[in-house]
Design a protein that fits this description.
By secondary structure, the chain is an alpha/beta fold. 38% of the residues lie in helices and 22% in strands. It has a single domain, classed as P-loop containing nucleotide triphosphate hydrolases (Rossmann fold, 3-Layer(aba) Sandwich).
Length: 128
């Protein structure tokens, strides 16, 4: 599994398209809330987490199951934990859940890449 993280608009999806050439891409912002099996790539995983929370689903359990059923997937997720702490409780909870799920994915992934200004930095695993 490959995990690509970074801030918004840092070139994550472009990087994944150029280097991993996924056959199929699932978008977490509007995909079904069941665990996609044999997913080549899922983008906007942080938005999938928000949607799961709205449905009162266990995001950590969903993420563990997703990782075990899709060991070759490329997962792309925005880092949302930086900056000002949100005033709204649900936004703070979302931020915590994204961080918790990111830790689960990073633990399971063989490669973790952080994108900043379009520059990939491998923070776990072999170089790309």
């Amino acid at each position: 599994m490959v995990f690509v993280i970074g801030g918004a608009a840092q070139g994550k999806i472009k990087f994944v398209m150029e280097h991993f050439k996924p056959i199929a891409i699932v978008d977490g912002s509007d995909c079904f809330l069941s665990i996609p099996q044999n997913s080549a790539c899922i983008i906007h995983y942080h938005l999938l987490i928000k949607r799961l929370m709205l449905e009162k689903m266990d995001t950590a359990e969903f993420t563990r199951k997703f990782c075990s059923e899709n060991p070759n997937a490329v997962i792309v997720m925005n880092e949302i934990g930086c900056g000002i702490i949100p005033l709204e409780k649900n936004e703070r909870e979302w931020r915590e859940n994204v961080g918790r799920c990111g830790c689960i994915i990073a633990e399971k992934a063989s490669i973790v890449i952080r994108m900043t200004c379009g520059i990939p930095t491998v923070i776990k695993g072999q170089s790309i």
